[in-house]
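Subject: asparagine synthase (glutamine-hydrolyzing) structure
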Amino acid sequence: MCGVAGVLAGSRAEPAGLDELKRMIAMLGHRGPDGYGFYRDDRIGLAHARLSIVGLAGGFQPIHNEDRTLWISFNGEIFNHVELRQELEARGHCFYTQTDTEVIVHAFEEYGPATWAKLNGQFAICLWDTTRRELWLVRDRLGILPLFYARRGDHLVFASEAKSLFGGGRVDPAFDPVRLAQVFTHWSTAPHGSVFAGVESVPAATAIRVDSALALHVDRYWQPDFATDPSLAKLSLDDAADRLEEKLLDAIRLRLRADVPVGVYISGGLDSSVIAALARKLDTTHMHSFGVRFTDAGFDETPQQRLVAGHVGTEHHDILCSPQDIQAALPDVIRHGETPLVRTAPAPLFLLSRLVRESGIRVVLSGEGADEWLAGYDIFKEDKVRRFWARQPDSKARPKLLGRVHPFAAVNGQKDSPLWQAFFKRGMMETDETFYAHRTRWRNTAWSQRLLSADVQATADDAAFEAHVAAHLPDGWSRWSPLARSQWAEIATFMTPYLLSAQGDRVAMANSIEVRYPFLDPAVDDLCAALPDRVKMLGLRDKLALRRLAARHLPAEIFQRPKRPYRAPMTTALFGDGAPDYVRDLLSPEALARYGLTDAAAVSALADKAHRQNGRMAGEREEMALVGTLTLQMLAHYVQDELPQSIRDQRATLDRAEIHVLEDLGDDTRIAAPQPTAA
């Protein structure tokens, strides 16, 4: 992984200076601590912060093709680069590095825009075509890696993170109230945006071509197809497990490619345990594993983690996460994540990635994606029960099935209460609604919006989020099963914009750690999408094919274990007697009034209640509202009060770093630096 940044000037505009590019890339030093590279011509400036994983020698970017007509600043990994390189060399292409990055420029030279669909990887690509005077901004199929852009006058600025846009000086960190409100309903902004005004995100599976007039031409180069493959319709559970294992082994084999050691996360759950077991099957050398423990037993999975690590044979490392650890980490999580959060779950993962770095590991495998592609979440069970209930809405027996859903919520008999059933019955008959499975979750989280200021609430437009997603329904969506539709909605509205960002890239790259996801391999996902529903979920039994596969490699305590959602303490870690000073400071009437984003009276009333009860709130929606408000105040404090000094500090750090100017205009900003050499 790395950090990318750049500025494209219109045909009559001045190109960006080298100092502006330095300020931009300096803000991304955490993404690439191994050195910096620059390219400039009369239209574009490209900058790159490097984290060395593949092609350690001679891999400084931006990288070019043979005649220097194509230049790329690239963040990510192309896992099938070896095969693509062999294919391109057979067609006469000459390489000067051993990097996967160089494969992209030669592939584009050979195949043009058809290249993007050929790449098996996780990537954010900024490719400049000097001949056509066109810039390409491209993200991987599932949006694992971030890429933002903004139009300012006759310039287009782009970077891995919004703070880099702010560092260059052309973009001000002003909030977009519409998108802020979206976070307080959907946990994130719509997939094409950010919480900052005018700062857009390249959507997943999308290539944006920026022409010489700075016009944007948007192309979605891939979309999922959850229609069951007729040849797989009668597949047995064992056969489905066989095929899944074959694809996962191939995916892991590719993701073990690196010039540095690769570790593995072990949460104690099914998904990461399967990845760990299969990785050890492929790599019998010394392997490190990593896990998070909690001092609060309600969140802890220590026995399961250690059981798996011992069974598969890894050297296991873990952190014991206390409320004080969450308190200490949360401000850094918000600075790196650049968005408010309605949960604290990213904080322990931030600490975990720090442990990985301190252990001398740069790359880890993780199990994200299995729940989305193989139907492991309770939201899919909830959807199934509500649809079943909707066929006989007056039934007294059918709603009792909800007692088998969300095992870690509403304990002590609350699931039998009329209130619990009424909560899930609302909107139950609207089974044709696009987001039927997700409406209940969003309605619950939207309660948090009452803590926002009247001005922000007035702009709230939840329909805009949903309209954007609905406008990009994949072909054939209407013919998919209800389960498949729910799976796609979870991927589009939760996994990509929230999970892979707030709990993935941002907290890992904050500590210069690259996370790789075998369950998000294209071949794995295409297989999972084509499998019949009955080998994913039968009745309310989930991930059947994966559990059958796991039974071959893991103890029964793991493959038979019910899904336990990853969670972390929220208000109990932040409010009450042990509350950190910043909670009272940021939620004081003065701070609330200063930033003007919240309803001060409503926030104060709920915060006072939380303090009196030591953070033990009546329901999760109150917890999410308070965490969302606190982290919004944190973000406002960061961009308005801390960012200017951070820009100066990071720029000073860059002046002491290794810098490579690969090509420049030749004016007085040029720096003498070595050209990259072949590995």
